[in-house]
Design brief:
Layout: H1 2-15, H2 21-59, H3 63-67, H4 79-82, H5 84-91, E1 98-102, H6 110-117, E2 122-127, H7 130-136, H8 142-149, H9 151-161, E3 168-171, E4 183-189, H10 193-197, H11 201-211, E5 212-225, E6 241-242, H12 243-253, E7 256-261, H13 289-298, E8 303-309
Parallel strand pairs: 1-2, 1-4, 2-3, 4-5, 5-6
Antiparallel strand pairs: 5-8, 7-8
Length: 311
Protein backbone atom coordinates (compact mmCIF):
# COMPACT_ATOMS: atom_id res chain seq x y z
CA UNK A 1 0.00 0.00 0.00
CA UNK A 2 2.93 2.37 0.71
CA UNK A 3 4.25 1.85 -2.83
CA UNK A 4 0.85 2.59 -4.29
CA UNK A 5 0.43 5.80 -2.29
CA UNK A 6 3.97 6.95 -3.16
CA UNK A 7 3.27 6.43 -6.85
CA UNK A 8 0.06 8.42 -6.64
CA UNK A 9 1.83 11.23 -4.80
CA UNK A 10 4.54 11.38 -7.44
CA UNK A 11 1.90 11.54 -10.17
CA UNK A 12 0.19 14.40 -8.34
CA UNK A 13 3.44 16.38 -8.11
CA UNK A 14 4.16 15.97 -11.81
CA UNK A 15 0.64 17.10 -12.64
CA UNK A 16 1.20 20.29 -10.66
CA UNK A 17 3.44 21.58 -13.45
CA UNK A 18 0.53 21.64 -15.90
CA UNK A 19 -2.32 23.35 -14.01
CA UNK A 20 -3.39 25.88 -11.44
CA UNK A 21 -1.92 25.10 -8.04
CA UNK A 22 -5.29 24.99 -6.25
CA UNK A 23 -6.90 22.73 -8.84
CA UNK A 24 -3.90 20.45 -8.96
CA UNK A 25 -3.78 20.13 -5.19
CA UNK A 26 -7.48 19.32 -5.04
CA UNK A 27 -7.20 16.76 -7.85
CA UNK A 28 -4.15 15.18 -6.28
CA UNK A 29 -5.86 14.94 -2.91
CA UNK A 30 -8.89 13.23 -4.49
CA UNK A 31 -6.65 10.81 -6.36
CA UNK A 32 -4.68 9.94 -3.25
CA UNK A 33 -7.90 9.39 -1.29
CA UNK A 34 -9.36 7.11 -3.97
CA UNK A 35 -6.11 5.20 -4.22
CA UNK A 36 -5.93 4.79 -0.48
CA UNK A 37 -9.48 3.47 -0.35
CA UNK A 38 -8.73 1.00 -3.14
CA UNK A 39 -5.56 -0.09 -1.38
CA UNK A 40 -7.43 -0.66 1.88
CA UNK A 41 -10.06 -2.70 0.03
CA UNK A 42 -7.34 -4.78 -1.62
CA UNK A 43 -5.64 -5.46 1.70
CA UNK A 44 -8.96 -6.39 3.34
CA UNK A 45 -9.78 -8.73 0.46
CA UNK A 46 -6.36 -10.36 0.75
CA UNK A 47 -6.75 -10.73 4.51
CA UNK A 48 -10.20 -12.21 4.04
CA UNK A 49 -8.85 -14.77 1.60
CA UNK A 50 -6.09 -15.75 4.01
CA UNK A 51 -8.62 -16.05 6.83
CA UNK A 52 -10.87 -18.29 4.73
CA UNK A 53 -7.90 -20.48 3.80
CA UNK A 54 -6.89 -20.83 7.45
CA UNK A 55 -10.47 -21.60 8.47
CA UNK A 56 -10.73 -24.28 5.80
CA UNK A 57 -7.49 -25.84 6.95
CA UNK A 58 -8.61 -25.85 10.58
CA UNK A 59 -12.10 -27.12 9.73
CA UNK A 60 -10.76 -30.07 7.79
CA UNK A 61 -12.14 -31.64 4.60
CA UNK A 62 -15.79 -31.50 3.63
CA UNK A 63 -17.84 -34.68 3.37
CA UNK A 64 -17.72 -34.42 -0.42
CA UNK A 65 -13.93 -34.14 -0.35
CA UNK A 66 -13.63 -37.19 1.90
CA UNK A 67 -15.94 -39.22 -0.33
CA UNK A 68 -13.74 -38.34 -3.32
CA UNK A 69 -10.47 -39.15 -1.52
CA UNK A 70 -8.17 -41.67 -3.27
CA UNK A 71 -8.25 -43.85 -0.14
CA UNK A 72 -11.82 -44.73 -1.08
CA UNK A 73 -11.06 -45.76 -4.65
CA UNK A 74 -11.93 -49.40 -3.98
CA UNK A 75 -14.90 -48.46 -1.77
CA UNK A 76 -16.71 -46.31 -4.31
CA UNK A 77 -18.18 -49.27 -6.19
CA UNK A 78 -20.44 -49.79 -3.16
CA UNK A 79 -21.60 -46.16 -2.93
CA UNK A 80 -24.49 -46.81 -5.30
CA UNK A 81 -25.91 -49.29 -2.78
CA UNK A 82 -24.78 -47.77 0.52
CA UNK A 83 -25.35 -44.08 -0.26
CA UNK A 84 -22.97 -42.76 2.41
CA UNK A 85 -23.54 -39.04 1.83
CA UNK A 86 -27.33 -39.31 1.89
CA UNK A 87 -27.24 -41.69 4.84
CA UNK A 88 -25.00 -39.52 7.03
CA UNK A 89 -27.01 -36.43 6.12
CA UNK A 90 -30.24 -38.24 7.02
CA UNK A 91 -28.78 -39.12 10.41
CA UNK A 92 -27.76 -35.47 10.84
CA UNK A 93 -24.07 -36.23 11.40
CA UNK A 94 -21.84 -33.14 11.51
CA UNK A 95 -18.06 -32.87 11.22
CA UNK A 96 -17.91 -31.54 14.80
CA UNK A 97 -19.82 -34.50 16.32
CA UNK A 98 -18.57 -37.26 18.56
CA UNK A 99 -19.51 -40.38 16.61
CA UNK A 100 -19.37 -44.02 17.71
CA UNK A 101 -19.43 -46.54 14.87
CA UNK A 102 -20.36 -50.11 15.70
CA UNK A 103 -18.36 -52.84 13.95
CA UNK A 104 -16.03 -50.62 11.91
CA UNK A 105 -14.53 -53.81 10.46
CA UNK A 106 -12.31 -53.18 7.46
CA UNK A 107 -13.06 -49.46 7.44
CA UNK A 108 -15.63 -48.94 4.71
CA UNK A 109 -17.33 -46.18 6.73
CA UNK A 110 -14.15 -45.58 8.72
CA UNK A 111 -12.42 -44.16 5.66
CA UNK A 112 -15.20 -41.58 5.60
CA UNK A 113 -15.66 -40.87 9.29
CA UNK A 114 -12.03 -40.87 10.48
CA UNK A 115 -10.77 -38.07 8.18
CA UNK A 116 -14.05 -36.15 8.21
CA UNK A 117 -14.21 -35.95 12.02
CA UNK A 118 -10.46 -35.50 12.57
CA UNK A 119 -10.36 -31.70 12.79
CA UNK A 120 -13.43 -30.88 14.87
CA UNK A 121 -15.10 -34.09 16.00
CA UNK A 122 -14.21 -37.35 17.71
CA UNK A 123 -14.42 -40.87 16.29
CA UNK A 124 -14.80 -44.07 18.32
CA UNK A 125 -15.26 -47.71 17.40
CA UNK A 126 -17.59 -50.21 19.11
CA UNK A 127 -16.87 -53.89 18.56
CA UNK A 128 -18.21 -57.32 19.50
CA UNK A 129 -17.34 -58.88 22.82
CA UNK A 130 -15.06 -61.90 22.77
CA UNK A 131 -18.03 -64.16 23.52
CA UNK A 132 -19.71 -63.04 20.29
CA UNK A 133 -16.51 -63.56 18.30
CA UNK A 134 -16.15 -67.06 19.77
CA UNK A 135 -19.66 -67.97 18.64
CA UNK A 136 -19.05 -66.53 15.18
CA UNK A 137 -15.62 -68.11 14.69
CA UNK A 138 -15.40 -71.48 16.41
CA UNK A 139 -11.99 -72.17 14.85
CA UNK A 140 -10.40 -68.92 16.01
CA UNK A 141 -6.61 -69.16 16.35
CA UNK A 142 -4.66 -67.94 19.37
CA UNK A 143 -3.21 -65.17 17.21
CA UNK A 144 -6.67 -64.00 16.19
CA UNK A 145 -7.88 -64.16 19.77
CA UNK A 146 -4.96 -62.04 20.96
CA UNK A 147 -5.54 -59.48 18.22
CA UNK A 148 -9.27 -59.22 18.99
CA UNK A 149 -8.63 -59.01 22.74
CA UNK A 150 -6.41 -55.98 22.15
CA UNK A 151 -8.81 -54.32 19.74
CA UNK A 152 -9.68 -51.32 21.94
CA UNK A 153 -6.01 -50.37 22.27
CA UNK A 154 -5.17 -50.94 18.61
CA UNK A 155 -8.18 -49.20 17.06
CA UNK A 156 -6.75 -45.63 17.10
CA UNK A 157 -3.78 -46.75 15.01
CA UNK A 158 -6.10 -48.59 12.64
CA UNK A 159 -8.23 -45.48 12.19
CA UNK A 160 -5.11 -43.43 11.51
CA UNK A 161 -4.49 -45.64 8.48
CA UNK A 162 -8.01 -44.74 7.31
CA UNK A 163 -7.15 -41.05 7.27
CA UNK A 164 -7.72 -39.72 10.77
CA UNK A 165 -7.25 -40.56 14.43
CA UNK A 166 -9.78 -42.36 16.59
CA UNK A 167 -10.28 -41.21 20.14
CA UNK A 168 -10.68 -44.81 21.32
CA UNK A 169 -12.60 -48.06 21.10
CA UNK A 170 -15.30 -49.75 23.17
CA UNK A 171 -16.64 -53.28 23.48
CA UNK A 172 -20.34 -54.07 23.26
CA UNK A 173 -21.64 -54.88 26.72
CA UNK A 174 -18.65 -53.24 28.44
CA UNK A 175 -18.97 -49.52 27.76
CA UNK A 176 -17.06 -47.71 30.55
CA UNK A 177 -18.87 -45.35 32.91
CA UNK A 178 -16.74 -42.39 31.85
CA UNK A 179 -18.12 -42.73 28.31
CA UNK A 180 -21.72 -42.23 29.41
CA UNK A 181 -23.41 -39.29 27.69
CA UNK A 182 -20.37 -38.38 25.58
CA UNK A 183 -21.61 -39.24 22.07
CA UNK A 184 -23.71 -37.21 19.66
CA UNK A 185 -24.30 -40.11 17.28
CA UNK A 186 -24.10 -43.90 17.50
CA UNK A 187 -24.13 -45.74 14.17
CA UNK A 188 -25.35 -49.33 13.79
CA UNK A 189 -24.79 -49.84 10.07
CA UNK A 190 -25.40 -53.49 9.14
CA UNK A 191 -24.36 -54.26 12.70
CA UNK A 192 -27.39 -55.61 14.56
CA UNK A 193 -28.16 -59.01 13.04
CA UNK A 194 -25.54 -61.02 14.94
CA UNK A 195 -26.45 -59.27 18.17
CA UNK A 196 -30.07 -60.32 17.57
CA UNK A 197 -29.00 -63.80 16.48
CA UNK A 198 -27.24 -64.41 19.78
CA UNK A 199 -29.93 -62.82 21.91
CA UNK A 200 -27.99 -59.62 22.62
CA UNK A 201 -29.90 -57.01 20.62
CA UNK A 202 -30.84 -55.35 23.91
CA UNK A 203 -27.13 -55.03 24.74
CA UNK A 204 -26.59 -52.99 21.59
CA UNK A 205 -29.61 -50.83 22.37
CA UNK A 206 -28.54 -50.30 25.99
CA UNK A 207 -25.01 -49.36 24.97
CA UNK A 208 -26.35 -46.73 22.58
CA UNK A 209 -28.49 -45.29 25.37
CA UNK A 210 -25.47 -45.17 27.70
CA UNK A 211 -23.14 -43.57 25.18
CA UNK A 212 -25.50 -40.87 23.91
CA UNK A 213 -26.10 -37.48 25.42
CA UNK A 214 -29.68 -36.33 25.79
CA UNK A 215 -30.86 -35.45 22.30
CA UNK A 216 -28.31 -37.74 20.66
CA UNK A 217 -29.09 -39.92 17.65
CA UNK A 218 -28.87 -43.60 16.84
CA UNK A 219 -28.55 -44.24 13.10
CA UNK A 220 -29.54 -47.74 12.01
CA UNK A 221 -29.02 -49.30 8.58
CA UNK A 222 -29.98 -52.96 8.63
CA UNK A 223 -30.75 -55.74 6.17
CA UNK A 224 -34.57 -55.89 6.09
CA UNK A 225 -36.64 -59.04 6.18
CA UNK A 226 -40.21 -59.01 4.82
CA UNK A 227 -42.68 -57.83 7.42
CA UNK A 228 -44.43 -61.24 7.40
CA UNK A 229 -41.22 -63.29 7.63
CA UNK A 230 -41.17 -66.05 10.22
CA UNK A 231 -39.40 -65.58 13.55
CA UNK A 232 -36.88 -68.28 12.67
CA UNK A 233 -35.89 -66.71 9.35
CA UNK A 234 -35.83 -63.19 10.78
CA UNK A 235 -33.76 -63.91 13.88
CA UNK A 236 -30.57 -62.43 12.42
CA UNK A 237 -28.89 -65.72 11.48
CA UNK A 238 -29.50 -64.92 7.80
CA UNK A 239 -28.56 -61.27 8.29
CA UNK A 240 -32.13 -60.03 7.88
CA UNK A 241 -34.26 -58.50 10.65
CA UNK A 242 -37.84 -57.30 10.54
CA UNK A 243 -38.09 -53.53 10.72
CA UNK A 244 -40.89 -53.69 13.30
CA UNK A 245 -38.68 -55.75 15.63
CA UNK A 246 -35.80 -53.29 15.43
CA UNK A 247 -38.10 -50.35 16.10
CA UNK A 248 -39.71 -52.16 19.04
CA UNK A 249 -36.32 -52.89 20.63
CA UNK A 250 -35.23 -49.24 20.57
CA UNK A 251 -38.59 -47.84 21.61
CA UNK A 252 -38.74 -50.26 24.55
CA UNK A 253 -35.54 -48.65 25.88
CA UNK A 254 -36.99 -45.15 25.56
CA UNK A 255 -35.72 -44.06 22.16
CA UNK A 256 -38.04 -42.15 19.87
CA UNK A 257 -38.23 -43.15 16.21
CA UNK A 258 -37.78 -39.77 14.60
CA UNK A 259 -37.75 -40.75 10.93
CA UNK A 260 -37.30 -43.63 8.49
CA UNK A 261 -36.05 -43.54 4.93
CA UNK A 262 -35.80 -45.65 1.79
CA UNK A 263 -32.33 -44.28 1.02
CA UNK A 264 -30.89 -47.79 1.21
CA UNK A 265 -33.93 -49.75 0.07
CA UNK A 266 -33.64 -52.30 -2.74
CA UNK A 267 -37.04 -53.56 -3.94
CA UNK A 268 -35.26 -56.06 -6.22
CA UNK A 269 -34.02 -58.05 -3.22
CA UNK A 270 -36.57 -60.77 -2.36
CA UNK A 271 -34.75 -61.30 0.96
CA UNK A 272 -35.49 -65.03 0.77
CA UNK A 273 -32.00 -66.39 0.05
CA UNK A 274 -31.32 -69.61 1.91
CA UNK A 275 -27.85 -68.48 2.98
CA UNK A 276 -29.15 -65.01 3.69
CA UNK A 277 -27.55 -61.70 2.85
CA UNK A 278 -24.26 -63.34 1.85
CA UNK A 279 -25.89 -64.57 -1.38
CA UNK A 280 -25.82 -60.99 -2.67
CA UNK A 281 -22.96 -58.55 -3.32
CA UNK A 282 -20.36 -58.01 -2.12
CA UNK A 283 -20.10 -61.61 -0.82
CA UNK A 284 -21.92 -63.51 -3.62
CA UNK A 285 -21.48 -66.85 -1.85
CA UNK A 286 -23.36 -68.89 -4.43
CA UNK A 287 -22.17 -71.91 -6.39
CA UNK A 288 -23.12 -71.36 -10.00
CA UNK A 289 -21.91 -68.62 -12.32
CA UNK A 290 -25.49 -68.18 -13.50
CA UNK A 291 -26.78 -67.57 -9.97
CA UNK A 292 -23.84 -65.30 -9.24
CA UNK A 293 -24.69 -63.17 -12.27
CA UNK A 294 -28.37 -63.06 -11.28
CA UNK A 295 -27.57 -62.00 -7.72
CA UNK A 296 -25.00 -59.45 -8.86
CA UNK A 297 -27.73 -57.84 -10.96
CA UNK A 298 -29.96 -57.60 -7.88
CA UNK A 299 -27.33 -55.57 -6.06
CA UNK A 300 -26.86 -55.34 -2.31
CA UNK A 301 -29.63 -56.14 0.17
CA UNK A 302 -32.81 -54.26 0.85
CA UNK A 303 -32.14 -52.18 3.98
CA UNK A 304 -34.12 -50.20 6.49
CA UNK A 305 -32.70 -46.80 7.47
CA UNK A 306 -33.96 -45.54 10.83
CA UNK A 307 -33.15 -42.47 12.92
CA UNK A 308 -33.84 -42.72 16.66
CA UNK A 309 -33.34 -39.95 19.20
CA UNK A 310 -32.65 -40.19 22.92
CA UNK A 311 -35.02 -37.76 24.69
Amino acid sequence: MRVLLSSVAAFALLSACNGEPGEVAEDAADTVTEAAEEAVEAVEELAGGIEETVEEAVAGPTLEQVLADPRREADRARDQYRNPRETLEFFGVEASDTVVEALPGGGWYGRILAPWLAAEGRYYGLNYSMSIFERLFADMTDEQRTRLAGWEASFPATAAEWGGPAAGGYTLGSVPENAAGTADVVLYIRALHNMARFGELDVAVDDAWTLLRSGGVVGVVQHRAPADETDERADGSRGYLREADVIAAFEARGFVLEASSDINANPDDPADHEIGVWALPPSLRVDSDEQRATNAAIGETDRMTLRFRKP
